[in-house]
Specification:
This protein has a seven-stranded mixed sheet with strand order 1-3-2-4-5-6-7, with helices on both faces. It has helices at residues 30-34, 59-72, 86-93, 119-131, 133-144, 152-163, 167-179, 182-189, 205-211, 227-230, 232-249; strands spanning 3-6, 12-16, 38-42, 78-83, 101-107, 193-198, 215-220. By secondary structure, the chain is of the alpha/beta class. Helix 4 packs antiparallel against helix 7 (167-179) and helix 5 (133-144) packs antiparallel against helix 6 (152-163).
């Protein structure tokens, strides 16, 4: 598992990327937060520069990547920050790190806690992925993940990155993710849950509050799934507010 560490403040912020991405996607956050905190960004297995020598690709196995890095670095207290698939990953990681996790922060994730898609509805999508992973992923990202007027260069970069990843890992990860019931996962995490979400997809806050110890959401208007790259300054301000709230509430 490849990772990088910047800064030396406490607590440590551990940034976890989304499906088919890597730690470089936090390029607008790492320098900003390293001035005050210890900042860690990792590549989940099968992504970026991390190894691919495993057979199960799921939030549960990715959570052990996060656990391994936190334990290897001997971090005493952490806030786990996960984008999209990274949200379920850090939620699965929290109970693996007892006494260390102050909170988890989901970035455009945890939108509809407890809703599991009908497998039959997903069959055409996965069939298309298996037939032509690159083209299906490219179309999915371009068609679903960005608001009107998004920076074309950013859209091209992300669509190219995500569609060029290993198909077997991408399909297995997505299939596992779509089957996951996040309600029990957040209950088992047992820590406060905060979100900084885009307004492109609605967030059911009430549903999250049924399952999490605490569930609070901040929304960044006019953004899509990659809000931290689309409007990094405004995103960092909301994340700053979230971190301040977590640390103020810390016993």
């Amino acid at each position: 598992i490849r990772y990088e560490v910047r800064g030396n403040g406490q607590p440590a912020l551990v940034f976890v990327h989304c499906w088919q991405c890597d730690r470089s996607y936090w390029e607008q956050q790492l320098p900003h937060y390293a001035a005050k905190y210890t900042v860690v960004a990792l590549d989940l297995a099968g992504h970026g520069e991390s190894g691919r020598n495993r057979t199960v690709w799921s939030p549960e196995t990715y959570a052990r990547d996060v656990q391994a890095v936190v334990e290897h670095l001997k971090l005493p207290q952490v806030i786990l920050i996960g984008h999209s698939m990274g949200g379920p990953v850090v939620a699965e990681a929290a109970p693996l790190l007892p006494g260390k996790v102050l909170a988890i922060i989901g970035i455009d994730t945890f939108n509809n806690i407890g809703q599991i898609p009908d497998p039959k509805q997903m069959e055409p999508f996965f069939a298309a992925m298996k037939a032509n992973f690159a083209a299906t992923t490219d179309g999915f990202i371009r068609g679903m993940m960005f608001p009107a007027g998004a920076d074309p260069a950013l859209v091209d970069r992300i669509a190219r990155d995500m569609s060029s990843g290993p198909a077997d890992i991408g399909i297995a990860s997505m299939e596992s993710l779509w089957k996951l019931n996040l309600g029990p996962v957040l209950e088992q995490a047992g820590v406060p849950v905060y979100c900084v979400n885009a307004d492109k997809f609605p967030t059911d806050t009430a549903a999250g509050q049924k399952h999490a110890k605490l569930f609070k959401v901040r929304i960044l208007p006019g953004t899509g799934h990659f809000l931290f790259l689309e409007k990094p300054g405004e995103f960092n301000k909301l994340l700053d507010e979230t971190l301040a709230e977590i640390l103020t509430a810390k016993p």
